[in-house]
Design goal:
This protein has about 280 residues and is mainly alpha-helical. Helices cover about 75% and strands about 0% of the residues. It has helices spanning about 1-15, 25-35, 45-65, 70-85, 90-105, 105-115, 130-175, 180-205, 205-220, 225-235, 250-279.
């Protein structure tokens, strides 16, 4: 059942692109505001956010349990919830648009594509260090693909629609406001998934390169998720000319290989889930 729901949700996401009608988050903004304005909770921002995330997730868990005996109802319900929880906006077209900008050395198009990928860069002028900029896009794209698909699928498989919803609502809350405790919570629920994601690159890319480059970070309890993912990708692509301490400089070809690596990794995850669903 999990596999069918995942395939339906991913297919709908690909077909709809950035125009997913389910990606409407205004209700959550109002819901958060409601709880944060309740008298006893006004001085406890973290508690009000926890309630705002927990209650809808609990409701989803109860509904999922209620329809568990009907394959059609559970799959339909889970597919819709999963589609809502998958990442916002378009990714593939924006990534390929940036690659086109690099090949044409079009700085204006590069700025537009970077913004759409979630990384504003107002400092791009006529003279651009494309290698450094490509490194920024690699890091941003690695994390974007992770939060859009992989982490949502991981928690969905473990805890059903409720697990996926907890992550997505947490991500939305972090995007909307600066809250150190909330950011730490998001990092904590990403931590185990980042390790599985990074190790997946060792299978879909260079095993030795990925392990050698990322092994120290895999055991770290402080490194940001996007940095671990970046280093695992660089290792999987056997990119050894860029030290971790310095800025990441990569070519357009290596950036193109990044997209192929992410696609192979998604196929691997779907295959593993399919195998697990048999048993």
């Amino acid at each position: 059942m999990f596999l069918i729901a995942i395939l339906i949700a991913i297919a709908c996401l690909q077909l709809g692109g950035g125009n997913n009608p389910l990606h409407q988050d205004a209700w959550f903004e109002k819901w958060r505001a409601f709880w944060s304005n309740i008298g006893p909770l006004k001085g406890f921002r973290g508690l009000s956010l926890a309630i705002a995330i927990a209650l809808p997730s609990l409701g989803v868990a109860l509904l999922s349990f209620a329809v568990r005996d009907s394959l059609i109802l559970w799959t339909s319900f889970s597919s819709i919830l999963l589609l809502y929880c998958l990442g916002r906006g378009e990714f593939t077209e924006n990534f390929k648009g940036y690659l086109s900008a690099v090949k044409a050395e079009d700085t204006d198009l590069a700025k537009v594509m970077l913004a759409r990928l979630g990384h504003e860069r107002s400092d791009i002028g006529e003279r651009v260090d494309w290698g450094m900029l490509n490194g920024v896009v690699l890091e941003q794209s690695g994390y974007r693909s992770f939060e859009r698909l992989f982490v949502v699928i991981f928690w969905f498989v473990l805890f059903g629609p409720a697990g996926a919803l907890v992550y997505r609502l947490s991500q939305i809350a972090v995007d909307r406001e600066t809250n150190k405790m909330l950011e730490r919570w998001l990092w904590a629920i990403e931590w185990p998934v980042v390790r599985v994601f990074a190790l997946s690159f060792a299978i879909t890319g260079s095993f030795v390169g990925c392990i050698e480059r990322a092994q120290a970070l895999l055991k770290c309890f402080s490194t940001p998720s996007r940095v671990v993912i970046r280093e695992a990708i660089l290792g999987a692509l056997a990119i050894t000319h860029t030290p971790f301490e310095e800025g990441v400089k990569i070519s357009a070809r290596e950036l193109d290989e990044t997209y192929k690596l992410l696609s192979r990794t998604l196929s691997l995850w779907v295959f593993v889930i399919a195998v697990l669903s048999i048993f």
